[in-house]
Amino acid sequence: MWENKMNYHKYYSVDVVNGPGTRCTLFVSGCIHQCKGCYNKRTWKVNSGKPYDKALEDKIIQDLQDTKIKRQGLSLSGGDPLLPDNLSVILRLLQRVKNECPNKNVWVWTGYRLQDLTDEQKMLLSYIDVLIDGQFIESEADKTLVWRGSQNQIIHYLKKLE
Ligand code: SF4
């Protein structure tokens, strides 16, 4: 049975802003980091936004498989995709992307630092090509940075991109 355990705020089926190339981007609900200056405060509550369901997941997979508008991959942001409450749904989505959309890369933005991830969070890493980690720290904010907002955040290329 398909169980929904996650909410989301926005899904962009064609996005050229969040990650390289043309992509699909999902902004999930739920974040505990409460960064000062957060660009997306309304996503903090896990029950904010709308329920993520099988219809949306099927749509994401179909969009990634679309040959008319070719997407490089999937971007996951929020909110925090690695919030413990979101892990089971995100893991299932990433497993589907790997199995049904080979050659698509996955970029994930999280407020957790790579070195602090729990074993449960680490289970997702094998499905992620690029992880941008760390909270947004206003005093280290830098508008010239690409794919990240503050100097402390690190772009981890976990796998070599095609
Ligand atoms: S981790 Fe991201 S979404 Fe969460 S509070 Fe910080 S900036 Fe906002």
Name some characteristics of this structure:
162 residues, TIM Barrel, 7-stranded mixed beta sheet, 3 helices, binds iron/sulfur cluster, iron-sulfur, Aldolase_TIM
Describe this structure in words.
Pfam families: Fer4_12. Its cofactor is [4Fe-4S] cluster. InterPro entries: Aldolase_TIM (IPR013785), NrdG (IPR012837), Organic_radical-activating (IPR034457), Radical_activat_CS (IPR001989), rSAM (IPR007197), rSAM_sf (IPR058240). It catalyses: glycyl-[protein] + reduced [flavodoxin] + S-adenosyl-L-methionine = glycin-2-yl radical-[protein] + semiquinone [flavodoxin] + 5'-deoxyadenosine + L-methionine + H(+). The protein has a single domain (7-157), classed as TIM Barrel, CATH 3.20.20. With 162 residues, the protein is of the alpha/beta class. The protein has helices at residues 54-65, 87-100, 119-122; strands at 7-15, 23-28, 50-51, 73-77, 105-109, 130-133, 154-157. It is built from 3 helices and 7 strands. Iron/sulfur cluster binds next to loops.
Helices and strands: which structural class? alpha/beta
How would you name the oligomeric state of the polypeptide chains in this document?
A: single chain
What does the radius of gyration come to?
15 Å
Bound molecules: iron/sulfur cluster
Shape: globular
Task: Provide a short characterization of the protein structure.
InterPro entries: Aldolase_TIM, NrdG, Organic_radical-activating, Radical_activat_CS, rSAM, rSAM_sf. The chain is α/β, with parallel strands linked by helices and 162 residues long.
